[in-house]
Amino acid sequence: MAYKYVDNYREQGARKQLADLLKQKGIEDEAVLKAIGKVPRHFFFDETFWNQAYKDIAFPIGEGQTISQPYTVAYQTQLLHIKKGDKVLEIGTGCGYQTCVLLELGAKVYTIERQEKLYERTAQVLPRMGYKARFFLGDGSKGIASRAPYDKIIVTAGAPTVPDVLLGQLNIGGILVIPVGDESVQKMVTILKTGQNDYERHVLDTFRFVPLIGDKAW
Fold it and tell me: How far apart are the C-alpha atoms of 42 and 119, rounded to whole Å?
């Protein structure tokens, strides 16, 4: 993939229009909208496809994966209620677009990807863009126990159930956001950890994610 880091008024204007569109679609968190307006999404595209970068669509990025639809990224991020300094585990790094949005909000991001080619690409590209996360290669369905606990956990692939191991890696007061369902359609689920073994669970809207592959998933 060819990366050329040019960000001019055209791209900046397109991001503002995208943020405005997401607001019209129901994204209310102004900090999330501001982050969407800052992250140069076209940097994740080959130059040939830059005209697709600021459409509210998912797009293939190789290895059978996609860069998520901006609405989906904003929707999940809004549910996390990120505060500056939050320690966040992201499961499914992909191209790193969601990672950058979390970093723009001031989170400390630990992100894990099972596809080695995606992991290597993203671990190189994001620092060149000025974004610093902690990158891990491995089975995200098991979380990253060595760096737990986390204030927030976001899963960017569809799971058949909520892995108990992820709940165990949450701080009390922490939030897990995960799409749960079958391999073709899922419901977005948020879980608030209210005690050592106590949780509040909310089932929200329908989405379609690539499946979460791993020991604690498909």
Answer: 19
Q: Closest by alpha carbon to 164, among 138, 143, 137? A: 143
DSSP H or E segment with residue 128: helix 116-129
d(CA 19, CA 83): 20
Measured CA to CA, the distance from residue 53 to residue 67 in angstroms comes to: 10
Residues 158, 163, 164: CA angle, nearest 5 degrees:
160
Among candidates 44, 47, 50, 39, which has minimal Cα distance to 15?
39
Amino acid at 184: S
Nearest-5° Cα angle at 212, 167 to 131: 80
Place of tokens 């005209």: 51
The predicted-structure confidence for 16-66, as pLDDT tens digits, reads as follows: 999 999 999 999 999 999 999 999 999 988 777 888 889 999 988 766 677
Tokens of residue 159, six digits: 């799971």
The angle that helices 9-24 and 70-80 make with each other, rounded to 10 degrees, is: 60
Distance CA 161, CA 179 (A): 9
Is 141 part of the annotated catalytic residue set? Answer: no
DSSP 212: P
pTM: 0.94
Q: Which of 68, 141, 146, 184 is catalytic?
A: 68
Interval 7-27: pLDDT, tens = 889 999 999 999 999 999 999
**What's the confidence (pLDDT) of residue 2?**
45
